[in-house]
Predict the 3D structure of the following.
Amino acid sequence: MDLLAEEDSKLSFVTQGAGTPAMVAHLMGDLLIEAREFCSALTKYPSPVNVVSHAHLPLPSFIIYMEEMVKGSSPPSLLYNGSMATTIAAFKRTIWRHYRAHGRHDLAWRKTRDPYAILVSEVMLQQTQVSRVEGFYEKWLVRFPDFTTLAKARTADVLAAWQGLGYNRRALALKRLAEIVRQEHGGRLPKDRAALERLPGIGRGTSGSLMAFVFNSPEPFIETNIRRVFIHAFFPRARRGVTDAAIERYLERTLARERNPREWYWALMDYGASMPDLETKGTARGVNPNRKSAHYRKQAAFKGSDRELRGKILRCLVAANARRTGAPAQGLSRDQLAEAVGAAAPRRGERDAFAQVVSRLAKEGFIIEKRNFIFLAY
């Protein structure tokens, strides 16, 4: 359970007058003790902060202090909300301080406001590390500088430019997206999140990042580095099962009254990306926070997988068309392609896997089969 949910449930029980006096007294004691533990725990985070100035007191003195606060004009719920507001403010100071000192300010896609260029970077960064994307981003923009150029490009040329980034379906989705933007949106990226999510390859996460980075809109979205930061900071007791919906409750609080959502998200992602280094230095010790996420999945081995076979098939077809700009697509016979990717072995399992992958690639629009020959889709 996260900090907000756990304490809110107890506070509602106390403030609504439910239960016997003894039960209420017991829960109030829990709240006071846990509030002190929570405040003390925060002093161990990457940037030591004292959320409540009296959190360092011995427990009996702290309880007396909290009881005096409760007896005053503020009911427990208001006292709690004030503490969380202070926590959020301290959290933001930590993130901003790190960003100013260690942020990745030189990333090329952070220096542009061109919607197309930002879109390209966001699609490339799906499941791919920043260091790898840096080697492809500017070359892609030279080859396909805008929606129109990409929409008119041959599939073979688009896939050739994508080779080395992995997950080739992103390249195909990006080309289809460019076609739709050109045909249905006048060559302009939609400014509406729902409209963005109707485009190929754009899910909730990418639509939110586009709203933030293209339009500087405070739309909540979560990616792996943001998830890591919030689980580490706000779910210290969780062992597993932290949902993105729960994280968004805290994320939305940090976005409230934020004048520059674009840069705030950059700061969050840069802090999250640096956390493995902080853990090595002993600043943010513990298990990788993302393992506590309800959405955490250990990626299956690449070697021998369908993903590996898909990549081999597409690379072979791309290579066959590498020097045929403007010429009809060059195909390979099914036997030639199977031999080229090492799937011509007599074992039935390998032949079946090859056939299944070819069938899926055809359904997804990557390839076309004609008379036992396989071509890249035009």
Summary: The longest helix spans residues 76-102. The domain at 108-292 is CATH 1.10.340.30 (Endonuclease III; domain 1). The radius of gyration is 26 Å. Residues 6-30, 41-82 have pLDDT under 50 and may be disordered.
